Please model this.
Amino acid sequence: MNCVMCVVGARPNFMKIAPLMRSLAQSSVLESYLVHTGQHYDAAMKTAFFEQLHIPEPDEDLGVGSGSHAVQTAEIMRRFEPVLDARAPDAVLVVGDVNSTIACALVAAKKGVPVIHVEAGLRSFDRTMPEEINRVLTDQLSDLLFTTERQAQENLEREGIDPARVHFVGNVMIDTLLDNRPRAPAVADVLAAAGFESGPTGGFAVVTLHRPGNVDDPQVLGQLVGTLEALSRDVPLLFPLHPRTAARLDAAGLMSRAREVCYLLPPLDYLHMLALLQSAIMVLTDSGGIQEETTALGVPCLTLRPNTERPITVESGTNTIVGAERDRILAAARDVLRNGGKAGRIPELWDGHAAERIVAVIEDWFRPSQ
Ligand code: UD1
Model:
């Protein structure tokens, strides 16, 4: 048996690793081992996802917690090294673009352990985003790269990565989405769990914000809250708060104003979030994953960022890039309310079977050549 050590760290990793752990468990030639770095640790940011998505308890929890980028990345590396030494896997598999992804890929690569990157080749071409740096570097260190959209392969070739190492397999996050759609509760139950006795009677929009570029500067955050205030006169807004955003709203004295104009919810578990996304008239977000999930669900998405690393969601899907500027957001949102927004179509291979394809390629890759 060849051993694949899988790494997760932050919330958006969990829905990607769930179908991979399941497919790896079904393999007769691979065994898997799960390391959680502890980048995200709260029940709402971690435990709920493991339970709902039936992710096995991590074999190792590094418990790194929060910190500056340098501190967090260094701490993950420091704590991951002895685990890697002790277990000596045949490969380390990392997903996405968070600090845990680059930190563990870097430790493995320097020890000569092959690195497998799931969700490779996505590029926003915006190095002010920490995730972009994580993506570029992780791909450079990887031996086997799995992509979610065809354009990713061109990005990798431009950076000198051998196309023979790149496999277009579809999207593991959409495996999880399709698998769990029937399990999502009613929206009223989500609101009741958050303490709201009644919710919006007609349709609603969902808002998520957590990018440092949108929430860390009080002035930018204040303008966004003002934009939400204007939009809330046209459509009720349901806004699950990421801990980073909650802290920034508090610090900027904006929390009560946000509460007046939105249904503010705590960070939601996977199924509660899915319930909101699939019933929304539209979603306004700065998340990467939600751009893909709304495309798969056929729900119009307005991305409150200047760019996206997931162009397929704009070209084929329901996504429109609007940035963070008030007039553009309001015009785009009102257009969706009047005209229904982009219908979109499901991107190639977003069919619920990406994890199976990935495991088949890994099995082949380990097979000794005749
Ligand atoms: C990280 C990822 C980002 C991803 C996001 C999803 C990086 C560089 N960023 O950003 O790509 O979109 O996760 O959530 O890896 N906190 C808690 N509880 C937790 C975890 C965090 O309260 O369980 C709070 C802490 O105050 C922490 C802050 O959230 O300082 C930010 O957490 P951190 O992991 O540093 O970055 P995210 O903004 O979550």
